[in-house]
Design goal:
Layout: E1 3-8, H1 16-29, E2 33-38, H2 61-65, E3 76-77, E4 96-100, H3 106-115, H4 119-132, E5 137-141, H5 148-155, E6 159-164, H6 168-183, E7 188-196, H7 202-213, E8 217-222, H8 225-230, H9 236-239, H10 244-257
Helix pairs in contact: 1-10
Length: about 260
């Protein structure tokens, strides 16, 4: 049975898409079949991390929601995007990563914001994708904040990963989302602190966040110039397996698999 994992943050700019993509890569490197859906329809971008040329994309999540294609037709096999620094493919036999991207065309973004869509279609798409691609994990990259799509993603999740920076605004927003997730009875709630300065005591920071929310802190990820240098053109987990960020991704995967 597919395990559904939603990645969410109350505010934008936390590194949510980067985390989702690297998590997908890490799981695929362990031989799992992974699906990723970019439901951040207003500001999509996760495709860049898998080196997808948007001009070569035939169907997107938008097309599925408008009834132009099945959700399977919108799923791209992006396994070849999980490569090391030299461009060598790393995913072992049996491992796969499929991505359902959202459209980056301004007219299509504007249309979906204006006309909306049936959220139940999105729910059906998630389940169809899990079945048709025989996925071990489905990762949902959500839109920041709280809206109908976010509530749906949270409600159907086996695991909700809440990403926050060591910032008071993130702390307050995370409390709101956690309260919603507890009301929706999500089986596993995990906090991930991102963009922590190297000068911070990561253990002390994790303990402080845990004491604030009484929710497990699965990983504290560093703010790194290496991530800035990569600039969303690849996956740090694959390119730099010994990097502290990659170690944090592996710790997070251990928590999910347990």
């Amino acid at each position: 049975m597919t395990k559904i994992i939603s990645t969410h943050s109350y505010r934008g700019g936390t590194g949510k898409s980067n985390l989702t993509a690297n998590l997908a890569a890490g799981l695929a490197l362990r031989g799992h079949r992974i699906g990723v859906v970019d439901t951040d329809i207003q500001s999509p971008g996760i495709h860049t991390l898998f080196r997808v040329d948007p001009h070569a994309v035939h169907f997107t999540l938008n097309d599925y929601l408008w009834g132009k294609c099945g959700v399977r037709e919108a799923a791209l096999d992006v396994t070849s995007g999980v490569v090391d620094e030299a461009g060598n493919q790393l995913v072992p036999d049996g491992g796969k990563v499929f991505l359902v991207p959202s459209s980056i065309k301004t007219g299509e973004i504007a249309r979906i914001l204006k006309e909306k869509y049936d959220v139940e279609d999105l729910n059906n798409g998630f389940h169809d994708l899990c079945r048709e691609l025989d996925l071990d994990y489905l990762l949902i990259d959500t839109h920041p904040g709280v809206n109908e799509e976010t509530l749906l993603s949270i409600a159907i999740s086996d695991t909700l990963m809440l990403l926050l920076r060591p910032d008071i605004q993130d702390y307050q927003g995370t409390a709101v989302t956690l309260e919603l997730a507890r009301k929706l009875e999500v089986p596993q709630l995990l906090l991930v602190v991102n963009k922590a300065l190297d000068s911070f005591d990561f253990l002390e920071l994790a303990q402080r966040v845990f004491s604030s929310y009484r929710t497990p802190v699965a990983a504290v990820l560093p703010l790194s110039t290496d991530l800035i240098r990569v600039g969303s053109t690849g996956l740090v987990r694959a390119m730099y397996p010994d990097h502290p960020f990659s170690s944090g991704i592996e710790t997070l995967i251990d928590a999910i698999e347990d």
